Amino acid sequence: ELSPIPEQEIVTDFRRIRLFPRSAVPYNVQSFPSTHTVPPEQIWVITGGVNLLIDGVEGLEMVDMSADRIIIWTDGRNTQNFNSEIRQSKETPFEIYLEGNIEIRQGTYFLKANRAFYDAREERAVMLDAELKTRLPELGEDIRVRASQIRQLSKGAYLAQNAWATGSQFGKPGYKIQSSDVFIEDRYTTPWLGSGSAELDPITGQPMPEKRAWLTSSNNTFEIGNVPLFYLPYVSSPAEDIYFPITGLRFGNDRIFGFQVETEWDMFKLLGLERPEGTKWEGQVDYYSYRGVGIGQSGNYQGANLFGFDNIFSGNAEAFYIHDSGTDNLGLDRRDLVPSTKDRYFLNHQHRQTSPFGMTLSSEAGLFSDRNFQQEYFQSDFNNRKDVETLLHLKQQQDNWSWSVIGRTKLNGYENTTDWLPKADLFLLGEPLFGNLVNWTSHSSVGYGKLKPGSAPYNPQQDVFTPLPFIADSQGLVAMTRNQLEAPFNLGPVILTPYVMGEAAYWEQGLQQQQIDRLYGSAGLRGSIMAERIFPDVYNPYFNLNGLAHKMVLEADYSFSDASENLSGIAQYNEFDDNAQEMFRERLVINTFGGVLPPQFDPRFYAVRTGAGRGVTDPYYELVDDQQVLRMAWRHRLQTKTGPPDRMRTKDWMTLDLEASYFPDADRDNFGEDFDIEIGIT
After folding, report:
1. Cis omega before residue 4 (within 30°)?
2. Taking the CA of residue 354 as centre, how many other CA atoms within 13 Å lie in the half-sphere pointing to its CB?
3. Cellular component GO terms, alphabetically (predicted)?
């Protein structure tokens, strides 16, 4: 008779404990049972320095402990005799008390303490007079948390009390954040839709979560040395962003805003939010003693594969608000302007997205509370940045051709802006014909434009204003096609290019709401010759010179142009200046010329004289008229190399442009002056 073979118990979740001497000196072990507990426990007291390793449990990273002395409590029913390697179920109690030069390693965390208690079954611990370190790949260094007590609440979660945190590796750090409580934990984040390529789960096909060390603290004081600088009741952020959430601080004082305190804050850190890759979000709180308190925010983002599609994108957004209790000071004749509203603000958002096949999508939206707000509070942006607009623009470019469609509307009533509902453009650049003897360039455009003059200032007696003469309340179909043929050839070192260009344009409404058809033609010859000399031995670190090249170009362009309609009746649907220049001109007519603008100072006539609208692709094609002119230029470039040795690039170190224009019919084309001369130096 065969007796059944007893089934062997299969243990899948087990714990393995191994003990080693901490040094070359063997450790000492005392082993005895404890009968005062249920179930009974086996106690081991180990002295002389010991290194203890715990591993084997699925999902548990190895715990590596070292101490001068340890005491171990475990279930005495199955473990009575001491062994340097023990295997037991993960549910078996196993508690450890450590004392003296304690070092504990688990995953990316490294801890030191004088005394500690660790419960292996619950994965919890208490450490006294302790320090925690964790390696941050993003910073390439450790983050340190020092505390009177550190508690491990669970795997990868620690609470430090009466603690400070720093990124400094010095024993006594030069800077730190002192906190009553610091909570460190591992968080798993899934990349957002626009973060680009991410590692995918082979089973689900979804992005794999990424582990990050996260730090949350309360009652925080930022200290340099032992001097407290800032206090914040709550901070929560990735551990690599341990620094205080204030990112900018500026003090000032002037006659316009009074005493000023301007601050910028990292909003992700301040609110304890996870920062998506490629994003930045800052808050702004400002105090102006003459004006009030302003609040705002700004941010930007960039990434790839938005919503799962193949693309690269970027964007930014801004907002600001202040309840303004003061008046505007915008210059000599506008010292005390009362704003049209005390609630002043602006909103602005820009987005750009590039997709395959040369597709680009751009969108913008912007709104200001009143005419002078940007000039007063953000003067640099007003003078130097592009105008804030509201539009949607789609473009495709392939090789030498492109097309685009734009829709645009005006939200700020004081602007001289055309609403395009919509407008389409088609470009073809340098298409070779007849075996490369002739190049053809073309630009065609059609759209429905709605042009309306900007509104007058709130207080025109102080803020003088005259509408621009070339902006009218006009709307309707606007269409144009412009084509040019060029036949370049070399005559020795000289490049000569005869050309002919023709245009047909239509405006449903001009300045007097009349229909306008215009035919325009231009023919001419341009030429250029270039010479250069290289000085490779020129080097001067003070002037940032690393070699020097002098390049010189002589240019000449003679053209004869004729238009069937003169410029005076055509409304300017395509603006050629931004708001800063237009607002200046709206005041210039009265405060400089007494109400009547002399024609030689009309910006459109100046643009015609300089040829601003003659090019096939020039966006403001209105700016042409009858003209005969010879343009000459002598251009100099001093160039050097800059950048790292393996990626050096050429840049202009100094430029000099000498230009002159000769008008054979000076009375018609240049107010009786035969020559115009311009000199440019940079």
Report:
1. no
2. 6
3. cell outer membrane; transporter complex
Closest CA to 627 of 597, 651, 662: 662
Q: Is 271:245 a contact under the CB 8 Å cutoff?
A: no
* 498 and 487 Cβ atoms separated by less than 8 Å: yes
What pLDDT, on the 0 to 100 scale, is given for residue 2?
A: 44
Q: What residue ranges do the domains of the chain occupy? A: 14-241
Report pLDDT digits (tens) over 228-271.
Answer: 887 888 887 776 666 668 888 889 999 999 999 999 998 888 88
Residue with tokens 């000071």: 329
pLDDT tens profile 84-97: 888 888 888 889 99
Q: How far apart, in whole angstroms, are the C-alpha atoms of residue 482 and residue 506?
A: 12
The answer to whether the beta carbons of residues 69 and 98 sit under 8 Å apart is: yes
How distant is the alpha carbon of residue 173 from its chain centre?
32
Kindly state the helix (H) or strand (E) to which residue 484 belongs, with its residue range.
Answer: strand 474-486
Q: How many C-beta atoms lie closer than 10 Å to residue 259's C-beta?
A: 12
CATH architecture of 14-241: Sandwich (2.60)
Q: Give the range among 232-241, 366-375, 452-461, 544-553 with minimum mean pLDDT.
A: 232-241
What's the pLDDT band for 212 if we cut at 50, 70, 90?
confident
**In angstroms, rounded to a whole number, what is the distance separating the alpha carbons of residues 160 and 185?**
11
Distance, in Å, from the CA atom of 626 to the CA atom of 568, rounded to the nearest integer, reads: 12
CB 328 within 8 A of CB 339: yes
| The token pair that represents 653 in the structure block | 């170190």
Question: What token pair was written down for 588?
Answer: 């210039």
